[in-house]
Amino acid sequence: MLGTGGGGDVRTGSLAATRAIREYGEVPLVRLADLADDALVVPLSGIGAPTVSHEMIHSEDEPKRVAEEVERLFGRPPSAVMSSEIGGSNGVAPVAWAAQLGLPLLDADGMGRAFPEVQMVSMYVAGLPADLVIMSDVAGNVVTIRPVDGLWSERLARAVCVAAGSHALMADYVLTAAQARGAVIEGTVTRALEIGRATEGAADPLQALQDRLDAVRLITGKLTDVERRTTGGFVRGTATIEGTGADRGRRLTMELQNENLVAIEDGQVRAMVPDLITVVDTETAAAVQTEALRYGQRVTVLAWPCDPLWRTPKGLDTAGPRAFGYELDYVPVEELMTRG
């Protein structure tokens, strides 16, 4: 749900996590307050095009190679794993990686959602130097990058990712617990669990979900057109939903770059990044990733406010609509709905 269409297919991450827990044991969930100041936290995520992740599954050796490189560089092993983005497979697979490494999982992430580019993390917005990226792929390659800033970390990591087949495992912003305080978005693993539990056994899963997220419904209808292409390590495209029932006669178009970025109706923006826009199955309220959108699906589009960090000037400069090339001034989704 928090992946806003991206972060990879949650099913593959769930299968990996279930298998890893069965083989290596349960994974403790810890808070930053539980860690010593000098404890190393390793944010892990898959980088690349979500469509590729269906066929190119992470190997169990990838997180181990990354952890070994962290220990080689810092002179001590990591103390905890953190999800770089609490969305899609990248929100669930860190459970598997933590289990394989015998480490706890930090109840936090770097986005509070999913974003497509490396520098679009809370640590960058907080001003921490983006001076280390470690990547590993299924072929066994390990690449350590020392970028001069966050934008170069994206350019260089994306080039390595494309060379690896548009899919790799990445650790960015390896940081101490002291550095992480105030620079990561805490409590997001707990929030993800609460969102999942809100719909279990609910008489109206969609309404239960909407209430839990405090989200607005942009439209309920049928997918009538989907255009996707994989290029430069991203999935890009558009999706169009024709309204049904009370929304008959309406049409909403979403623009995608791994995640749902902008929702437009009759030339008017209804919601925009960094606020969250998620497509869900109208009956089950299950989230639908961008790579799983298909003609004829009955869906509802929900939108709700992002973490306040992303509404700061640096947050909007990093992941607002203009960061993705849209000539739009950011307007919060709740204000857009009041206007509408």
From TrEMBL:
* S-Me-THD-like C-terminal domain mapped to chain residues: 150-333
User: Which species is the source of this protein?
Assistant: Nonomuraea jiangxiensis
Any idea where the S-Me-THD N-terminal domain is? Answer: 2-145
Question: What protein does this entry describe?
Answer: DUF917 domain-containing protein
Concerning InterPro entries, the annotation shows: S-Me-THD-like_C, S-Me-THD_C_sf, S-Me-THD_N, S-Me-THD_N_sf
The portions of this protein that span the membrane are none
- One Pfam match, given by its short name, reads S-Me-THD_N
